[in-house]
Amino acid sequence: ECTISEDERQQIIREAKEFCGNLRTGLRRKKKIKEEEAASPQRGLQNSNSKGKKKMVDSKTAVLVKQMCGICLSEEGKNTVSGILNSCSHYFCFSCINEWAKVESRCPVCKKRFSTIIKTVPGGGLTHVPERDQVYQPSEEEVRGFLDPYGNVVCIECLEGGDDGLMLLCDLCDSPSHTYCVGLGFEVPEGNWFCNGCSSLTPFPDNDSSSLIIGGSSSAASFDLDKL
């Protein structure tokens, strides 16, 4: 059994009356609006027209969003001449996409192949683009490096090149050094040679040679592995 005080009972009654009053007011207002619309059909037509106009304005606003070139990232302007591809709808400045087409005939964004560019100016015309694929063209110096990878080696001791016939390469890390820079004179020794860095890590590597030569900036030592 639940009992409430007199004050609580009066509070509940007041809240119930207030709720019922608000409900009746809302129903009367809704009924009045329906009666006005029924009495004046022209008003309903105006409301529907205003809604359609609002939608039209929204669609125009969406179209007015400025596009951005997919190459130079500049926004579309009044004096901007764009180039339209026949493969997709991505936006580009005509000058940007025209230069791009000299190297590759694929859209920079979606990589679809295109064959024409339309210049968006009166009488701009149509530009035909042959099929092209971007190919890396190495420089003359890079080509020489590919053909002779040891052509530009520099001694790690004197930091100079030249005397390729007297240049030793470490048998572990390929570090180059002149024979005379590591104390071996002007003759190329037989056997394996290891720079100071590699000799400290693996002083006696397992190999088929019977001799090991360790070179440095101040001295060089030759070891006969058969006697060790």
TrEMBL record:
<dbReference type="InterPro" id="IPR001841">
    <property type="entry name" value="Znf_RING"/>
</dbReference>
<feature type="domain" description="PHD-type">
    <location>
        <begin position="152"/>
        <end position="201"/>
    </location>
</feature>
<keyword id="KW-0863">Zinc-finger</keyword>
<feature type="region of interest" description="Disordered">
    <location>
        <begin position="31"/>
        <end position="56"/>
    </location>
</feature>
<dbReference type="InterPro" id="IPR019787">
    <property type="entry name" value="Znf_PHD-finger"/>
</dbReference>
<feature type="domain" description="RING-type">
    <location>
        <begin position="69"/>
        <end position="111"/>
    </location>
</feature>
<dbReference type="InterPro" id="IPR001965">
    <property type="entry name" value="Znf_PHD"/>
</dbReference>
<protein>
    <recommendedName>
        <fullName>PHD and RING finger domain-containing protein 1</fullName>
    </recommendedName>
</protein>
<keyword id="KW-0862">Zinc</keyword>
<dbReference type="InterPro" id="IPR011011">
    <property type="entry name" value="Znf_FYVE_PHD"/>
</dbReference>
<dbReference type="Pfam" id="PF00628">
    <property type="entry name" value="PHD"/>
</dbReference>
<dbReference type="InterPro" id="IPR017907">
    <property type="entry name" value="Znf_RING_CS"/>
</dbReference>
<dbReference type="Pfam" id="PF13639">
    <property type="entry name" value="zf-RING_2"/>
</dbReference>
<dbReference type="GO" id="GO:0008270">
    <property type="term" value="F:zinc ion binding"/>
</dbReference>
<keyword id="KW-0479">Metal-binding</keyword>
<dbReference type="InterPro" id="IPR013083">
    <property type="entry name" value="Znf_RING/FYVE/PHD"/>
</dbReference>
